[in-house]
# Entry
Amino acid sequence: PLESDAENRLVAKFVSVARATIKGTLVIGVLQGGLAGIAFWIVGIKGWAFWSVVMMVLSIIPGIGTALVWVPALIYLLALGHTGAAIGLGTWCAVVVGTVDNVLRPRLVGRDTQIRSWRRCGSPCGRFTARCSPSTCRSWRCRLPTRSRAFP
# Structure
């Protein structure tokens, strides 16, 4: 049982984090799908707008979302003998599209929730999460703990 003031603060924080997470997911989905769709258009894949929308939706799946579309497209280009287009598409999607989430999500979600960057990067045990990199923490100077007090 919480006091009414503490309960209201907890609910407000939950709503703030949920809203920021949903907004961040939508913005990142549009960016990832749009950037990959532009690459599909440049390399000449038919239906690039359709695939762009599909990647916007699949970007919700962490790590592999957009790759579920662009990797088969890359294989398709290789099978047709368009090696240069395949290399360009693969490089663009792996380097630019794939890192949009890692670079922008901490900034988008953190700004709205006002959670410090080291807390967004650290897991409950005080270690890096799969989505965290030194660039998302702004630098190694964020001094993440190597062990948690709860889990030595």
In short: The helical segments are 4-43, 48-58, 67-79, 83-113, 117-121.
